[in-house]
């Protein structure tokens, strides 16, 4: 026994703490996806997580810290879902085009998530997980395969990321200026910039989008 507690209690306490932290993160992720994160209080978060209010500060110093961790996890989960959806595409240029079209359509399919991307802004490019590393992978693979004529990968990634974020912001700020079909217009512009001819870019933009199991 140590400090009045059996040594066997240690793993049990650790598991309970881990469950509480996971419940808080899961509740925060639900609030992010349904668009309620900005107005949620700590009490609402702990209620949604079904944990005591006092438990919150055993894991996070603030609501902002919790939502930062939850947001990073949400973005990584979405990136994995998109990865799974385009996994059958052997051609890296096709993977890139499909992934970009799905991501840009989040403004219509999951506007709350698009708002999350907007709030992150270009800081998204510095995340170790999420969409940016996948885009860099596809750009690299397409360059290696001779599909893209990219000579400066960081610049290409910055251009792709900026295009996506600019499009999502335009949709959010001026929804009357863009329609969902404009996703293909933007994707085609990027593909041509990356080295594909107009006919091939148009072909990739016309491919059926895979089902996103979300």
Please provide a written account of the structure.
With about 210 residues, the chain is an all-alpha fold. Helix content is about 65%, strand content about 0%. The protein has ten helices and no strands. The chain has helices at about 10-35, 40-50, 65-85, 90-105, 105-110, 110-120, 130-145, 155-175, 180-195, 200-205. Helix 4 (about 90-105) packs antiparallel against helix 9 (about 180-195) and helix 6 (about 110-120) crosses helix 8. It is elongated, with a radius of gyration of 21 Å. The mean pLDDT is about 85.
Report low-confidence residues grouped into runs of 5 or more. Answer: none
N-to-C SSE string, H for helix and E for strand: HHHHHHHHHH
- The count of β-strands is 0
Helical segment count? 10
First-to-last CA distance? 47 Å
Kindly state the percentage of residues in helix.
Answer: 55-70%
pLDDT averaged over residues: 87
Portion in beta strands: under 5%
Shape: elongated
Helix/strand-derived category reads mainly alpha
Give the biggest beta sheet.
none
The rounded Rg comes to 21 Å
């Amino acid at each position: 026994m140590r400090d009045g507690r059996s040594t066997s209690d240690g793993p049990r306490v650790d598991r309970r703490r881990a469950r509480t932290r996971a419940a808080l993160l899961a509740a925060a992720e639900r609030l992010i996806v349904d668009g309620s994160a900005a107005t949620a209080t700590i009490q609402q978060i702990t209620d949604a997580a079904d944990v005591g209010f006092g438990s919150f500060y055993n894991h996070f110093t603030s609501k902002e810290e919790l939502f930062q961790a939850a947001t990073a996890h949400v973005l990584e989960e979405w990136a994995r879902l998109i990865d799974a959806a385009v996994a059958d595409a052997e051609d890296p240029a096709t993977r890139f085009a499909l992934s970009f079209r799905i991501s840009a359509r989040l403004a219509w399919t999951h506007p709350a998530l698009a708002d999350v991307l907007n709030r992150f802004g270009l800081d998204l490019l510095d995340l170790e997980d999420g969409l940016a590393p996948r885009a860099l992978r596809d750009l690299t693979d397409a360059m290696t395969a001779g599909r893209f004529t990219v000579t400066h990968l960081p610049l290409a990634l910055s251009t792709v990321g900026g295009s996506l974020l600019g499009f999502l912001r335009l949709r959010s700020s001026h929804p009357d200026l863009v329609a969902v079909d404009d996703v293909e217009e933007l994707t085609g512009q990027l593909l041509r910039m990356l080295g594909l001819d107009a006919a091939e870019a148009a072909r990739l933009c016309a491919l059926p989008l895979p089902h996103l199991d979300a």
